[in-house]
Specification:
The protein is globular. Strands 3, 4, 5, 6, 7, 8, 9, 10 and 11 form a nine-stranded mixed beta sheet that branches. Strands 1-2 form a two-stranded antiparallel ribbon. Helix content is about 25%, strand content about 25%.
Amino acid sequence: MTAEPLPREMQHLPPHSVDAFHRGDFWLVQPKKGGHRAGMDALMLAAAVPGSFAGRLADFGAGAGCAGLAVASRCKDARVQLVELTQEMAAFAWASIALPENAHLAGRVSALVADVSLSGKARISAGLTDGSADFVIMNPPFNPPHHRPTPDALKRQAHVMDHDLFENWVRSAAAVVRPRGGIAVIARPEQLVAILQAMEGRFGHAEVMAVHPRADAAAIRVVVRAKRPSRAAMRICPPLVLHDDGDRPTQRADDISNGRRSLFGD
């Protein structure tokens, strides 16, 4: 028996792995070394989307496409656009879409190379048109420049934030999302104020969830979800705890990472 040829999108990729997520419901082609490798952050972000979501979703800073594909896996009527800045990481996203294992999702997922920090006509010319989505999720490069800098340029671009990043990305999300649409952001706890300030006047009814590695440890992430537009008050949700005292995933964290539960219970 001869092996099937690799999909065209994978034939010229640098060294990579093909990894299963959601217990094999979708697969991800991602770099082995250079660039960003997906993990729990992407899965928590995807889980912030309600399970009943059935519209168009844009995944800002998609990388290889883990979060967007996870939404398509959970939300069977969602249509997802992966939006990535670099051609190098977008190539992994295209390869992920082309995998035979993702054939049941491919018709609902596309990828676009674009800079989500652009504004006005430049943003529209890049393919991010006004009112084109019902929901935007974003996992921006939220590490400050002094935080463990990496010599890998592609990984640095995926991890290290620019000045006014949240303002620029949320501004674009507000333009792209239709009225009554939603946004979800994952970041570090110390960046919560910057996120809420960027959402002011654009999104409301913010729901904030802290993510703790263990019940007795400080939060390591926050997930913020909001609606456009809304004047409803912000609420602080019960936290997500990732591990029990024995360093095993909690049942809730395991359900979220495997696409069996939404982050906010909807």
